[in-house]
Amino acid sequence: MIDLYYWPTPNGHKVSVALEEMELAYAVKPVNILSGEQHTADFQAISPNTRIPAIVDHEGPGGGPYAVFESGAILMYLAEKSGRFWPAELAQRSNIVQWLFFQCANIGPMFGQCGHFRGYAPERIDYGINRYCGETVRLYGLMNEVLGTRDFLAGANYSIADMATYPWCAPIVRDLHAIDINDFPNVKRWAGAIESRPAVQRGMALMSDVMKIGDPDDATREALFGKQ
Ligand SMILES: N[C@@H](CCC(=O)N[C@@H](CS)C(=O)NCC(=O)O)C(=O)O
User: What is the pTM of this model?
Assistant: First the structure.
């Protein structure tokens, strides 16, 4: 059994989707990041950077519990463990790892900051919006180009790179980022194909009743960003 330390956000969804896709048994351990539960010592022992998602695999590599933090590392761990979405051939696997790192190093941070300056900053700061939302549009353009040459980010097959990227391009997140998906027809086609997968629908629906993006009150802002 795998414990999933989770809250319904784009980074959380990467792992709920992957667990559903790989048909691995898991138990959800909610970590309410809006009320500061990520800052407890117990959670920090599992996730040193005090961010969700994290997992504890109770049948880990030594036979006992094994904790993994950072969503990209979790996806690679689950793919290796399940043998699913993890091709044996080196070039195919490396393509997946490249696009997974691309997500973790670019899409996540830039889209995240675009959302921060649009939906969370206590005052409007045009420089931040222009910088990060400009990068977000550039990255959509890059994905649109790539997805004009193949069905999925890393090639012909759906992979953990797509599982990592799709939640950041889901409709509720696009709204926050002021992205019109019709400007990026290949991304639109790719997102539609991913959205139609039952495992994606189950993973994205996990705890969706408490999902809230943007518009924080003062207590939530303090839990997420500390005292300003
Ligand atoms: N690089 C990390 C980022 C994780 C992350 O930023 N998680 C957010 C939710 S999407 C979080 O836990 N935020 C709580 C906080 O900022 O205190 C990963 O990919 O796992």
Answer: 0.96
